[in-house]
Every structure is written in C-alpha cells, then in structure tokens.
C-alpha cells in the first residue's frame, strides 16, 4: 500500500529534501508552503501522515495541528527550530505524535515516519483482527482503525487521550506509575510533576466514565499511580 505524507513548511529546501527521501522510501508526498494551503490539501486529499513546521506564515503549525485533530487521528510529526522542553511538551500536548528539532538528519525523520506508520497502520491492509481490538466493559478500542467506542458510540479523543487509554487497556489490571505513563505516551523522560498527566486523565475520565469523580474503569491508586480495571 502506498502511504501519502503531507509536508508543510515555508522553507522550500526542507520540503524538497523531505520529498526526496520519502519518495525513495516509496511514500507519496504532497507539499504545502503554509498552514492555509496544508488545511486545504487535507480537505481534498487522503493523507496518511503529516509533517508540519510550527513557525509558518498565515497559520502556525499548532493551529494546523488542532484543526486536523478535530476530525482525524492521522500521525502528525511537528518540526521546529525550538528545542526547549516546554515547546516539545506543548506540541505533544495539543495532539502531535512526535516532535523533531531543526536542523535534523533526514534519515532520522524517515525512521520516525516509518515508526508512526507501523504503529497506526501496521503495514497491513484489511480489517482489524481480534488482537487489534480490546474490549473492557462498555469500552471497545480498535487499534487497527484507531477508534474507540463507549456504549456503542464513537468517542472523540485527542491523540494523547487515545495513547493514554490504549496504554491502560493494554495493561489492564496493572498499576502504572506516572513515570511509566509519561515516558510511554510522551516519549520523553519524566522529570517530575504530574499536572500534565492529571489533566489528561481527568479529561479522559469525563469521556469514558459515567461519573468521572467516582470512576469504575480508571482508578487512582494513592501514592503509586493508576490502574485500569480488567474485569468489569
């Protein structure tokens, strides 16, 4: 299957380099020089993955990311000249799947693109099989199609919420520490402080629990972390 990658950057040289390497690896590419053009392309074309620069004219990469996330969970990799941890966390927090700092090694970008494609699409065609679907209580998570249903209705989750839920459901019955959750979901070393995790778990509970204040699925284990109940 040929996967289509949307490239969005206001630097022509970067677009050309990424296009060259991606095409060599068998990917189809569509280029956009700013955020407005990227969103217009997204509406007209089937895009499997997007690489988006943060600092662009007209509409910045964060806004492009947020607009795409309103209707799609495709993998999104952000590019930025900013290397501070706060910028990385913000990018991942608003729904990015990965963050690459400029200047970058094109081979590293290719490796990360392939990793995201493997994670989401499994490099296979067809329908989800039993191993791709996790069902606990009223929650059904389809890893193949990257979808979640609660009581038969589709849930609208952000990329981060989906990753957290997937990690919990794959490890149901186990206590997961804040350190484990952060490093798995954000792919960064945990440096302490759990406000980010707590906020996302609170939002996730509002979507998968009948009452987020008295959760039956995602339990807080005081002093240790969290546990997703296995038998409900």
Automatic annotation (TrEMBL):
Q: Which residues bind DNA?
A: 131-230
CDD domains from the UniProt entry:
REC_OmpR, trans_reg_C
Question: Which SUPFAM superfamilies does the protein's record reference?
Answer: C-terminal effector domain of the bipartite response regulators, CheY-like
BP GO annotations: regulation of DNA-templated transcription
One GO MF annotation is: transcription cis-regulatory region binding
Keyword hit for Iron:
no
Q: Which residues carry this modification: 4-aspartylphosphate?
A: 53
Which UniProt keywords are listed?
DNA-binding, Phosphoprotein, Transcription, Transcription regulation, Two-component regulatory system
- Source domain of life: Bacteria
Gene Ontology CC, one term: cytosol
Domain named OmpR/PhoB-type: residues: 131-230
Record-annotated Response regulatory domain positions: 4-117
InterPro entries reported in the protein's UniProt record: CheY-like_superfamily, OmpR/PhoB-type_DNA-bd, Sig_transdc_resp-reg_C-effctor, Sig_transdc_resp-reg_receiver, WalR-like, WH-like_DNA-bd_sf
- What task does this protein carry out? May play the central regulatory role in sporulation. It may be an element of the effector pathway responsible for the activation of sporulation genes in response to nutritional stress. Spo0A may act in concert with spo0H (a sigma factor) to control the expression of some genes that are critical to the sporulation process.
Q: Which PANTHER family match?
A: PHOSPHATE REGULON TRANSCRIPTIONAL REGULATORY PROTEIN PHOB, REGULATOR OF RPOS
Q: What is this protein called?
A: Stage 0 sporulation protein A homolog
Which organism is this protein's natural source?
Answer: Clostridium thermobutyricum
């Amino acid at each position: 299957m040929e996967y289509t990658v949307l490239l969005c950057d206001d630097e022509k040289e970067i677009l050309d380099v990424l296009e060259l390497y991606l095409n060599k690896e068998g990917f189809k590419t569509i280029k956009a020089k700013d955020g407005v053009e990227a969103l217009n392309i997204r509406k007209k074309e089937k895009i499997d993955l997007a690489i988006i620069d943060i600092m662009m004219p007209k509409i910045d990469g964060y806004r492009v990311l947020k607009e795409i996330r309103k209707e799609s969970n495709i993998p999104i990799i952000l590019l930025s000249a900013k290397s501070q941890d706060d910028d990385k966390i913000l990018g991942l927090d608003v729904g990015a799947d990965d963050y690459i700092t400029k200047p970058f090694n094109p081979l590293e970008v290719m490796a990360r693109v392939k990793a995201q494609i493997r994670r989401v699409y499994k490099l296979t065609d067809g329908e989800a099989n039993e191993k791709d679907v996790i069902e606990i209580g009223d929650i059904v998570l389809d890893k193949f199609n990257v979808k979640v249903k609660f009581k038969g209705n589709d849930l609208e989750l952000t990329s981060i919420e989906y990753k957290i839920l997937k990690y919990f459901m794959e490890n149901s019955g186990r206590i997961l520490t804040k350190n484990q959750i952060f490093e798995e979901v954000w792919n960064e070393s945990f440096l302490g402080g759990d406000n980010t995790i707590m906020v996302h778990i609170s939002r996730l509970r509002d979507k998968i629990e009948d009452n987020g204040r008295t959760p039956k699925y995602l339990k807080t284990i005081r002093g240790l972390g969290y546990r997703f109940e296995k038998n409900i």
